[in-house]
Amino acid sequence: MIQDFIQFEFLRYTFLTGVLIAIIAPLLGTFLVVRRLSLLADALSHVTLAGIAFSLFIEKQFFLPLNPLYGGMGFSVIGAVLIEKLRSVYKAYEEIGIPIILSGGVGLSVIFIALANGFNTDLFHYLFGSVSAVSEADFISILIITMIVLTLIIALYKELLTLSFDEEHAVVSGIRANIIHFVFIVLAALVIAASIRIVGVLLVSALMTLPVASAMRLAKSFKQLIFYSIVFAEVAVIFGIISGYYFNIPPGGTIVVIAVMILIIILSWKKVILLFKGADRR
Question: Which of 56, 77, 112, 205 has the most CB within a 10 Å radius?
Fold first, then answer.
């Protein structure tokens, strides 16, 4: 692959984009998992699919060039804002906004896919990822999103950490919870939309949760949780892209399968350690 990597520009963009996504996806995923909002990624990914299908519909019916990546980002951000709005409406049942937006995203996706003359190769790539779908413009967009996400997470790290573990204490401490929530959920929307090129709409939530689930079995602090999550995500993405390229299959599937294998290995290893510790005590 090294020779092809040097020869083909699209492979370089795909690889570099995958490396960036493997940083920001589990980074936000750690906060989502700790806050028990893992389903948020599923909801926003389906809304992103609606934006992609809408872009394809506009392009085919009205011959207007609209990059599906930007259409997906727009819909994803709108979905994030609506979820945050529903949290304030249903204060006693804040999580209900997630299935509402997920259902709406699925419904819009079906409508726009039908209006865009059904499934095609482009839509298949957005659903499951592709090693050849990342353009220079996409890479630059994802690089900008990565810089924004890292900057804001570093700047708001203490506030996000406090909100994740004790929201009441955060509010009493003077943290403007509503603004922090809004910024975080918009960042999550952008990351999910940016990840679709590599992982695909239907599998992006796995990249935000599986590495975190693996890291939780090893980490002894929240910073370690973030570090291990990124390491596991990088391993899954890099080997997933290579496998997808050689076997000519969508990289999203291989990335998720490798992430699942990492989780199984870590769970098995922890059980083996516990068995040996139990034997030593006897």
Answer: 205
**Segment 209-264, tens digit of pLDDT:** 999 999 999 999 999 999 999 999 999 999 988 888 888 888 888 999 999 999 99
How far, rounded to the nearest angstrom, does the alpha carbon of residue 19 sit from its chain's CA centroid?
A: 13
Helix spans in 119-250 (H): 121-128, 136-155, 157-165, 167-172, 177-195, 204-216, 222-247
CATH number of domain containing 99: 1.10.3470.10
- Domain containing 83 equals 7-205
Token output for 44: 């926003």
Token pair belonging to 5? 């990597």
Q: How far from 237 is each of 3, 74, 112, 153, 234, CA to CA, in Å?
A: 19, 25, 30, 22, 5
DSSP label at residue 44: H
Q: Residue 15 in contact with residue 73, Cβ under 8 Å?
A: no
- How big is the chain, counted in residues? 282
Q: Looking up tokens 């990624």, which residue turns up?
A: 41
- Tell me the three state secondary structure of residue 17: helix
CB of 98 closer than 8 Å to CB of 80:
no
User: How is residue 91 annotated by DSSP?
Assistant: G
How many distinct structural domains can be found in the chain?
A: 1
In a domain, 27, yes or no: yes
Domain for residue 279, yes or no? Answer: no
d(CA 160, CA 167): 9
Query: Model-level pTM?
Result: 0.86
